[in-house]
Specification:
Number of helices: 7
Helix content: 25-40%
Shape: globular
Order of helices and strands: EEEEHEEEEEHHHEEHEHEHEEE
CATH class of the largest domain: Alpha Beta
CATH architecture of the largest domain: 3-Layer(aba) Sandwich
Structural class: alpha/beta
Strand order of the largest sheet: 11-10-12-13-14-15-16
Number of domains: 2
CATH superfamily of the largest domain: Cytidine Deaminase, domain 2
CATH topology of the largest domain: Cytidine Deaminase, domain 2
Number of strands: 16
Radius of gyration: 20 Å
């Protein structure tokens, strides 16, 4: 990138000394905290790459089932913070941005309240904020029904290449995750990048929740990293029937996908990949 070109949001130039002794700039992904508040209460502070913060907050709350068909968003507001020095990471100045979401019930006879939970999330967070096994069970037990879809593996193998070709921030920094939603015929519909792979998934799902276009029953989710438990759970919560990952799957992710009827394709790339299926004895295999 030319030094005279404006940097895309989410990237910062930092001075580096090369092996030849020359001092010039390199480009790194910005990682800063975002506070998410729901109906006036703080829910989580997550480390993220700034950009599409409304989508991130919406996707996170949707995946945690704090936004539902009955409890929908009535107002969403981004509040920019003022830079302050973090007392533990003294060289970093965090602006303290936040997203405030207000919901309202669409069924006045429903007296249920959103779960009173708080979370702490990092960019690499897996099951952050879950205080008990029961909380994990309650999320997986209430996932929507998935309608299994058969799809050609040749198409699935091609999707990571399309994902990579559209990663603007990765091209500049070489250090950021991506998630994308594709149509069933392989058309790229929405892509988001973030320092956190979970955040990238929340952003693409949140994009459709804000458009009242969720669940995503006829869409494919493609992720740049591995297929872990929480990414599969987020996809299943959005009723996504097909998920493709560049990296490996975990045992729990494979079991969740197989039980739900999701097509899970890992280590995807041109000419290869692992399609996880159910064996005749009911176990999962690749």
């Amino acid at each position: 990138m030319s030094t005279s070109s404006p940097l895309p949001r989410g990237i910062r130039a930092v001075p580096v000394r090369r092996n030849n002794g020359q001092l010039n700039n390199d480009y790194v992904v910005i990682e800063e905290p975002l506070e998410i508040r729901l109906d006036g209460k703080p829910v989580v502070v997550t480390m993220r790459t700034p950009g599409h913060d409304e989508e991130l907050a919406t996707g996170f709350l949707y995946s945690e089932q704090l936004i539902t068909d009955n409890r929908r968003i009535s107002d969403i507001r981004c509040v920019a913070g003022i830079s302050t020095t973090d007392t533990r990471i003294k060289v970093t100045h965090f602006p303290g941005d936040r997203v405030e979401i207000t919901t309202e019930k669409h069924d006045p006879t429903d007296n249920t309240q959103p779960a009173d939970r708080t979370f702490r999330a990092t960019a690499s967070c897996g099951v952050c904020g879950k205080e008990s096994i029961d909380q994990l069970d309650s999320l997986t037990d209430s996932l929507p029904e998935i309608i299994p879809i058969a799809i050609e593996t040749a198409l699935l193998e091609s999707l990571p290449g399309h994902l990579r070709g559209a990663q603007e921030l990765f091209d500049i920094t070489g250090g950021i995750h991506a998630a994308a939603i594709f149509s069933m015929d392989g058309k790229l519909l929405c892509l988001r990048e973030d320092i956190g792979r979970h955040n990238a998934v929340d952003k693409v799902i949140g994009h459709y929740v804000l458009q009242n276009a969720a669940p995503l029953r006829e869409r494919i989710l493609v992720v740049s990293g591995r297929a872990g438990f929480e990414l599969v759970q987020k996809a299943l919560n959005a009723a996504i029937p097909v998920m493709v990952s560049v990296g490996a799957a975990s045992s729990v992710a494979v079991e969740m996908a197989a039980t739900a009827g999701m097509t899970l394709y890992t280590f995807a790339g041109r000419g290869g990949g692992n399609l996880h299926v159910i064996s005749p004895d009911g176990t999962t295999e690749t």
